[in-house]
Amino acid sequence: MSKNLILIAVVIVAAIIALTQLNHFKLDLDSTTDTTQGQSEKQPSSIKQYSYNDILNNDEFKQSMQQAVENNDLELAKSLQKRAIEIAEAANLPDTEMSLISGDNGLRFMQFLASRQLFVDKFQKYYLSFKDIQQLKRDYPEAQDLFERSDQLIDKRDKQIQALAEQLAQESGEEVEMYVQLAKEQWQERQSKIP
Fold first, then answer.
1. Structural contact between residues 183 and 165, judged by C-beta atoms closer than 8 angstroms
2. What is the reported pLDDT for 35?
3. Would the pTM of this model clear 0.85, i.e. be above it?
4. Which among 108, 111, 147, 112 is positioned nearest to 127, based on CA atoms?
5. What long-range pairs does 70-76 form, CB within 8 A, spacing at least 24?
6. Are 165 and 179 in contact (CB under 8 A)?
7. What is the reported pLDDT for 149?
8. In angstroms, rounded to a whole number, what is the distance separating the alpha carbons of residues 83 and 80?
9. Which residues in the chain come in under a pLDDT of 50?
10. CB-based burial of residue 158 (10 Å sphere; 0-12 exposed, 13-18 middle, 19+ buried)?
11. Rounded CA gap, 175 and 178, in Å?
12. Spatial contact of 65 and 110, defined as CB atoms under 8 Å apart
């Protein structure tokens, strides 16, 4: 009886291996099979595969969509969406990716991404110039998941400045408050040297 079980197990394993090899062989054939028009079904590996991210992350597109969002220019946003769809169609993007950039939801998605990038860009400027970011948060609620991290960065910056002011005050024997502005200036100078 146990010999029969071992034999059945060996047959099952052999069948699985054979099916795996057959499927692998079939996949290899599929990648080289020509269509009736003589074109390969799959593009050669030397041709870059594009995605909707490549379109939406194009610098010119991003800047233009940010401008549209910043100026509440719906016509510009729709024009950019139309162009993105044309490019996506020319790149033969899959339907799943086309649906991400098409229609009203696609437009909102593009505007959402632009709003988030606007928040990031403006936050960097506010951060370096010690501006309060509360209004920035109200202006770009799409970046809500970035607010906590932004607050943490500001807190860290402020602690670094306070520590620097304390160090300067200790060296001179004067009050810390007298060195906060100098510490801010030195902190900004250090930041400007970071590439």
1. yes
2. 43
3. no
4. 147
5. 70/118
6. yes
7. 96
8. 5
9. 2, 4-47
10. middle
11. 6
12. yes
**Token pair of 176, please?**
């810390």
- Is residue 85 within 8 A of residue 99, CB to CB? The reply is no
Question: What's the length of the chain?
Answer: 195
Two tokens at 143? 């970046």
Ordered by start, the domain boundaries in the chain are 130-192
Whose structure tokens read 């799409």?
142
Instruction: Work out the burial of residue 176: count CB atoms within 10 Å of its CB; fewer than 13 is exposed, 13-18 middle, 19 or more buried.
Output: middle
Q: What is the DSSP letter of 139?
A: H
pLDDT of residue 40: 41
* 16 closest CA partner among 24, 5, 28: 24
How does pLDDT run across 90-108, given as a tens digit for each residue?
999 999 999 999 999 999 9
* CA–CA gap between residue 56 and residue 87 (Å, rounded): 11
Residue in the block written with tokens 């951060």: 127
3-state secondary structure 77-94: HHHHHHHHHHHHHHCCCC
Q: What is the DSSP letter of 110?
A: H
